[in-house]
Structure formats: structure tokens, C-alpha cells
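Researcher: I'm preparing a figure for a lab meeting and need a structural model of a single chain. I don't have an experimental structure, so a prediction will have to do for now. The sequence is pasted below. Please return the structure as C-alpha cells so I can convert it later.
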Amino acid sequence: MYTNVIINSAIPLCTNHQSTIQQNFFQFIDEHIHLHDDADFFATLVTARIETINHLMPYQTDNLYQCITSDYAQTINGIVPLDNLALYYIEIEKQAITLFGNILSCWAEYERYRVFQQVIKHPLTKTNTPQVVDNNKKITEVVPQIEDDKRLFITPYYDLPMTLSNAIALKTIENFVKKKHCYELLYFLALSSNGEYVIHYQCTTLFPTLITTSHL
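Model: Understood. Here is the structure written out cell by cell.
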């Protein structure tokens, strides 16, 4: 079933359709994760692939991005079977490579997609309506538990306002995972959306604009 669905989605890409195909692929991954209660799907796949690369070619770098994108890895990724994993894992890896270049980039884009879906599916409510703010005032504050904060913030990463925990998760993905290739952070992304943070934001119309954050 998995193979058929994935092959059917693997049509030639063009600029106008690529985004839609990627969205459909993420929806497929979502369905699998929810159906099988497999929240660690990407972590399992990436770990297995890294182990395969290091087994066949020992003494590779410890850096995930350098390992997955190395010339040698390109001859293994999506080709050499993943030990002890069902066949659909490698089928999904093949499609991830087609759509995103490598499985790490796919994982990062999927986590970004998940944040966007949370924003879209949870519109404004009575607990997180627009705030009356003092325009242009810059504020620094300590938030003990960002996951409990109901305020909405504007970010440079998405057009819609989002909760503080989502904003920080998206900042981690964009600024550290994708830009600096720190893909190891994807294993701990849930931790970056919880706990105590110092936040610096500027008061703007309706919603404050998040500027910087720092985990304590």
C-alpha cells in the first residue's frame, strides 16, 4: 500500500506543482504517523540511514548533514536497505530525496509544515485574541513556561501570528537547522518549544513582533 501511494505521487516536478506535491507528501507522512502512533518516524529513519552509512564506510563525520550529503552517502541513500525497518521506510526516503534532495532537508521541512498546520488549525480564540499594545515599545521578559503562554506573536517566518512556543520552534528550524545545518536539533525540537525563555519583542499593532529569544 505504501509503495503504491508513494510511486503514484512521484510524478515529474515543475515549479507550479512542486509545492502541492510536497504538501501531499507531508499529509501522507502525517497519516502514517497518526495511524501507527509513530511520532519518531523521521528520527528512526535518519538514525538507521546514518548507521548504514557508518557501517559500510566507517569513520565518517559525526555531523549529520555532512554525513548524509557526502559523496559516498549519495551512493547509499534511498538504495541500500535499512536494517530491521519495514520496506516503506526506504520508499519514503526515496521520495524525500526526489522532493527535497535528502532526508534531513525533508525532515526539517516537515517540522516546519507541522508548525504551520498548528497555526492554521487553531485560529484566534478568546484566550489569544489581539492585544492592545503600546506601539514601538521594546520589552524584555522572562517567560517561565512558553508552552503555557497564550499570547500571539508576529514573526519573520510566516504571515500569520502564532503562539510563543510555535514561534520559537519555527525560529529554531529556520535559523539553526536550515541556515546553519544543525540538523541534530531536530531530535530535540520538542524541547525547544518548552521551558523557560527570555524573550525580546517589540510592541506593534495588534500583535507584538518577536525579535530574539534565549533558553534558560
